[in-house]
Amino acid sequence: MKQDTIRLAMLGMVDGNGHPYSWSAMFNGYNRELMNECPFAGIPVYLNKEPAETLQINGANVTHIWTDNPDDAEKVAKASLIPHIVTRPEDVIGQVDAVIVATDKGHEHVERCRPFIEAGIPIFVDKPLVDNEKDLQVFTEWVNQGKAILSSSSMRYTKEFIPYHLSTRNLGELRFASITMAKSWERYGIHALEGIYPILGPGFISVRNTGTIDRNVVHLKHASGADVIVSVVSDMYGAFGLLQLCGTSDHVFVKSQDSFFSFKTQLQSFITYLRTGELPFPFEETIELMKLIIAGIRSREENGREVFLSEINAT
To answer: Which ranges carry the Gfo/Idh/MocA-like oxidoreductase N-terminal domain (predicted)?
Structure first.
């Protein structure tokens, strides 16, 4: 895209997810007084910490918004300085250059995205892209057709984890890793998985979830020989993004602490993709991550059976 300012639509808002407020503010700026009334208390806290000169992503603005509950759209638009509210998400077609689907229920994403994919509009989809095999096949087919689709967790861009994306040589050969997360496996397991994925890279073999829907304890095997334990417990808010890496020479414990940095970097990667046409990481990584999510659900539903990624078909 060559234009000076990319026009974005922010679409969708579901329970427990305030991204339309914070993500829009990172493009547009915000009304501090109205943002303080945001029902997601953590959002104004981390936005208000950020200096005005480093708050916004350059070269793009959120110009249109639609939310599932129309009352939410009005509140977000006022707080995050969005000029246009639409009555149907499809109304933004022809008015914007790209769309952001800001919802985190994977089973809804195919239908939320379909009108824009068919219209040829580039799209960013909040994590997880999907939570079932059938929908993964749909997105894979769209990407194979050349559709512009990007999806990620903000945890891929965790500031404190980035040094270990670059190298873990000081730890020796990794033998064990763990990462913790709150809320549900279906919606937040991807945060934990994508937090650790850039460190180990592709090559996950199998998943065994011996927990329950509220207390997921998941063992992942990786081709490198490393074992990974991911714990996603519904009310474990005191352990959001705690990473441990253990190797043959040393170990490290790291905590995710800067949500603003993660979100802004994540959104900036989408704008860079729109301008360059170059994905920040291969879609094959998203496929593998979605297979991990799907395998974790399947294993839990099958009483902790070890589910191999090879069982899940993306095409």
So the answer is: 58-146
